[in-house]
Amino acid sequence: MARAAAPAKRSVSGGYLPLFNVAFAHGYYNDRGGVCPDFTVVPTPACANLMASLGLLFKDLGTGFAVLVEAAKVDALVAWLKANSWSRLSFQIVSTNMNFVGITNLPITTNTLDQNLHVSNLATAMVNKVLTFGGGKPTGADAFFPLTGASLAVAAPAGSTVSLCDLSGAPVASATAQGGAGVAFNLTPFPAGYYTTTFASAASKPIAAPKGAPAGYVYTPGETGGFGVIDLLLAQPAKGIGAPGAFPVVLPAGMLSPVSLTLSFAPRDTFWRYYIVSPSTRGVLAPDLAITGPDADFTRSSEPLPNGEQAVVFASGTALTLQRRSTYRFSLSGQRQAPNGGRDGITVNPLPTAPAAPVWPSGDPLTGASEIYVYV
Which residue from 115, 113, 169, 165 is spatially nearest to 140, judged by alpha carbons? Predict the structure, then answer.
């Protein structure tokens, strides 16, 4: 879908013009139209310095962020980009929700102390008229890469040369593997961001990366607790690289066309397990006790609890989507055999739905198990 590009403003009256608006979306937040409040954003130190020199302004919007340019500095920005088209703005995102991985369609083992997200506007797709990061699907495990500190060790065949490359694919450092020790890079001189490695033989011919080598690394020097890095290029670096509509400065004309991008996540599906607990002093739950409702069938079993009581457990046969305002409606009905021989009717309608946490591993890393305790 074509965007209307507007001539760059040559204003001397002050004010700012929009370049990027990035929004966070998550299917878990169905009660607020998918708007996700789970991140804070900050420019990396190198990005903050670059933005200050170019007259750019950053705004954290709570559910996303915006980048603007001082109107009086548009001409200077365009001139600078013509000589620096691969330059990028890098932003570190930090999750403010300790349960984010649990509610998200990511491997349940995802640990942002070991791996971080990386996306950029070099890879985008239009989904329902919304320009999104990635290939058209919600952000998944393929957007996460090993997190490295200032020292990066890379396995490599003896005698081979390993090149460390920045987002453009240009080498920023090279080293030759001695013996079987591989190589090590000192990333201290380089800015935070996404880096890849390439390999060449002793004869300087490209060779395949060792089996199991990561596709890339995320480097965030001295900044702990991050969830990932978003890289934004202001202009298309070369024809055929990225979608033209993903870059706000159109070169060589120097036109401005603001870009809206969405970083989208899908909710996790979990297998729901209802623990129905009745104190033994009140009797025994009868065999007719059952959970009914659309969208899922439940199988019944029993399980002892740590306090010695026996729970009747109903487990869903299919994984059900976690949402803050669940659309599932299940009910519990049946009887309890009282100690005096009588029967008590039991009805819970609706049953509580699965909470955001905890989510327990279930074998499939993309699902999980949700436990719901109901006392009757």
Answer: 115
